Amino acid sequence: MLESDLGIFQTRILFLMEKITECDTLLMDYRVYKGKYEVVSAKKTGAEKHIEVDFHDKRNLQQEIETLKSEIDDVKMKLKDDLNATVSKMEIPISFFEKLRLQIDYMSLKCLEVAWNQRKDTCRTKK
What we know:
Layout: H1 2-90, H2 94-126
């Protein structure tokens, strides 16, 4: 009877040791996954902050572009008004006036393009 109790006891101990080994393995897996989660979570937080900064930069750039467009339109209108006044005073042929108007339109587009490229270069150097 004592030997059978001892055998049962040893079987139970062996079973418990297997369960302890399984628990140790699961605990090590948990620690690995927890470390990976923390790394991914930190990367996610960094990406969210980066996206937020990019969003604010984009909004600021859009506002600045609108301001530049408005300023260019004002200059363009002033140049057209001055040109119209000059043309009416000098009685220059209409074809010449059209050529000047096209040149003014072209120059205003070039100014906008230069301003835009400078902004893009500025944004790239900030990053």
